[in-house]
Amino acid sequence: MAFPASFSHSASLQLSASFHGERTTSTLLPSSTSSNSCPFVGSQLAFSASLRGSKTMSPSRLVVYSRRLSGLEEAMKMRREREQRERSNTKFTRPLPLRRGRVSPRLPVPDDIPKPPYVSTKELPELASEHQFHDAEGIEKMRAACELAARVLQSAGELVKPSITTNEIDKAVHQMIIDAGAYPSPLGYGGFPKSVCTSVNECMCHGIPDSRQLQDGDIINIDVTVYLNGYHGDTSKTFLCGNVNDILKRLVKVTEECMEKGIAVCKDGASFKKIGKRISEHAEKYGFDVVERFVGHGVGKVFHSEPVILHHRKQLDLKSVIYF
Q: Where are the residues of the annotated region Disordered (predicted)?
């Protein structure tokens, strides 16, 4: 899975003061009250002092109100402040908007390779309502399908460089999969015309390979799914193309860490909602937001099935989400 993200700006600080006769009270406040953008932990910092004529303020009259922070909280606060300073000092050149290229005809698959049932229709299959449970033999077949998908994904990533087209990546992936006696699962799924999904820059997922050449500084997610011995193996990864901006590198790094955080939650008896909560917490810590419209799903004999896994802590109307 890929966990796409968007940028949020750090809060700047402003100093507000009120004057009451000879007494002045100043409070340091974040310019935004959003908990997502505020770099501070704990209550607001305030100080008060009494000024009498031209007399020098006595240190004994300076009072600081604050909540005591634990060592861990203080370390996290300092780290967030440092990272926000680094982000504000990094120049970001936004890539040119994507333009659709020419989509070539779908590639043929040998007749002797078994195909999933949806290939015979262009209708988008419904999300299977039943959870899939696999016996030992089924798990071994899933493992074989996933290992093949992982090998193909690694080889596809090695092709990523400026000037190559996503259509060329699709051809290479298609050939590797059929050479292994498997079927490229995306091909023909709901009419999808290609054997792999290639999502460049702002395209969050399910990008269709075409004649567009990758540019120096692009990022590209390659989503490989194979159908082998009656089971689907599904995987994806985001790759850097050439000299990528530090902000995009951080986006890719944090997104991969989010995936690992979500995986770490998974164990017998764990709640599904903890996966999305852990992912959201990690993304927001680095100033990113999780795209709520896309979800994870079960995989096996059926390409997409329950359970639906949210990548965000909030509850959504599942009729509005897209599984991938």
A: 96-117
Phi then psi for residue 28, to 5 deg, are -90, 120
* Alpha carbons 293 and 25: distance in angstroms, whole number: 46
Residue 177's closest CA among 104, 117, 233? 233
Q: What angle do CA 8, 262, 320 make, to 5 degrees?
A: 65
* CA–CA separation, 137 and 149 (whole Å): 19
Token pair recorded at residue 51: 């000024």
- The count of other CB atoms within 10 Å of the CB of residue 191 is 11
Residue 65, φ and ψ in degrees, nearest 5: -105, 125
Residues making up the chain, counted from first to last: 324
DSSP string, 184-196: ETTTTGGG--SSS
Eight-class DSSP state of 40: -
Nearest-angstrom CA–CA distance, 152 and 255: 21
Question: What gap in Å lies between CA 159 and CA 164, rounded to an integer?
Answer: 8
Answer positive or negative: Cα dihedral of 195, 197, 198, 203: positive
Nearest to 221 by CA among 275, 322, 153: 153
288-306: per-residue pLDDT in tens?
989 888 888 888 898 888 8
Q: Are 188 and 121 in contact (CB under 8 A)?
A: no
Q: What are phi and psi of 60, to 5 degrees?
A: -70, -20
Q: In this model, does residue 17 exceed pLDDT 60?
A: no
Give the residue among 122, 136, 124 at the shortest CA–CA distance from 303. Answer: 124
Please list the residues that pair with 27 across neighbouring strands.
16, 46
Is residue 151 helix, strand or coil? helix
pLDDT digits (tens, 9 = 90+) for 160-191: 999 999 999 999 999 999 999 999 999 999 99
Q: In angstroms, how far is CA 320 from the centroid of its own chain? A: 19
| pLDDT digit string, tens, across residues 118-133 | 998 878 888 788 888 8
In sequence order, what DSSP letters do the residues of 277-318 get, joined into one string? Answer: HHHHHHHHHTTEEE-TTEEEEE-SSSSSEEEEEESSSS---G
Record the pTM. Answer: 0.68
